[in-house]
């Protein structure tokens, strides 16, 4: 366990800046260089170097585990006021590594959508996402920390379990609800990423105009927040 709490009279590590066009390899090398200058962050430097070596040798799954450990330790450091920029970038890298097998050492880290560091872009994306959510017949809830996901579908007040047909595989989902304004199906498409088919369940909640069909799903891969339930819809 490392401690990144600054001692009395010690200078806190300065916050670095990262560009959206920086590659993963460039960022991890900068991580290692920065952490080596801090006597209390030797473990962080080692993890960054391990991740580069593992990705270079094609050991992706092990590299993601190392990067996840690095991200978690940087989150701890951020709570103490250190390495806030590095923590944000590490979270971005781990998330994209989990979501896309094509995301690699040579990939650019992309735009920062953190509201604190890029408020204008974050607000624009928020407005787009709100408009997108309003156009869909369901509410989708998930976080990067948990594998569990929830889908809430408003249904007619009189809806019973017998009025519902749901077919789920690890890659696809189809939901039919008798009397719903969306016919012949409310949802029909491929998941954004694979789910655990055996963990799926659904039930009804509420009454009247608050009647809701709740779908409980579980991601196969943790560590990334899905932008939507579906990769595309039919």
Report on the structure:
By secondary structure, the chain is of the alpha+beta class. Helices cover 34% and strands 18% of the residues. It has five helices and eight strands. Strands 1-2-7-6 form a four-stranded antiparallel beta sheet, with no helix packed on it. It has a four-stranded antiparallel beta sheet with strand order 3-4-5-8, with no helix packed on it. The termini are far apart.
Protein traits:
single chain, alpha+beta, 4-stranded antiparallel β-sheet, elongated, disordered N terminus
Describe the SSE topology.
Elements: H1 24-36, H2 42-56, H3 60-79, H4 84-99, H5 119-134, E1 139-141, E2 148-154, E3 164-168, E4 172-177, E5 187-191, E6 201-205, E7 212-218, E8 230-233
Antiparallel strand pairs: 1-2, 2-7, 3-4, 4-5, 5-8, 6-7
Helix pairs in contact: 1-2, 2-3, 3-4
Radius of gyration (CA) equals 21 Å
Count the strands?
A: 8
Low-confidence sequence ranges: 1-14
Secondary-structure class: alpha+beta
- Main β-sheet, spatial strand arrangement: 1-2-7-6
| Average pLDDT over all residues | 86
Give the terminus-to-terminus CA distance. Answer: 49 Å
What spatial form do the alpha-carbon principal axes imply? elongated
Helical proportion?
25-40%
Taking the sheet with the most strands, its summary is: 4 strands, antiparallel
- Number of contiguous helices: 5
Strand content: 15-25%
Concise summary:
The protein is of the alpha+beta class and 234 residues long.
